[in-house]
Amino acid sequence: MKKSMDYAKRMKFVLTTNSKAFFFSEKKRVQFENPTLVNVLKSTVASFTRFNEETYADFETYSLIFVQNLMSVDRTIKTGFHDFDWEIKSETKPILGFEARKAIGTYYNLIWDTTTDVEAWFIPAIPLRSGPDIYMGLPGLVVEVRLPKVIVTATLIEEKEKVSIEKPDEATAMSQEEYEDYVSSSKKQLESLNRDYNSSYSI
Asked: Name one Pfam family in it (predicted).
């Protein structure tokens, strides 16, 4: 667990965004650890953040295209935006030289069948509705997200004149309905395997 925490502190993500779209993914870096160990550490960290492998948002069609590891296979899914039912608070604090404002909301995770409280800090002075992974939709750039087991904070904001964001290939993407059906069937499959395993070793 200590190694996982140390690895998590060294993880970096990149959010590239403009007013029309954004793309979010982990920043690739040279790995010096054993590949098997890295996979274990990443899996542990992923259980905290539950971030997708990649996330693309299209503000013109209000659609998300993300890559998620399901049953040890990366799947591409296309859905609508998540509704966090954001409630903007009066609290503010400085982040990277900007005044950030607090918002709270909730998120339902289909995979884990859980509802999570989310605390987000956004910068009204940067009028982009983007944020890390799926945490977005506020009147300003989300630069910090606080979840029950992890805090993700922006460490650098760079402004560029032109930002090119390539839309991922969605030809084989699951729809929202197909995604929900797949998750449901996967849960039933896991439950069946667990029952078979327990019955095989019952005494």
From this structure: Porph_ging
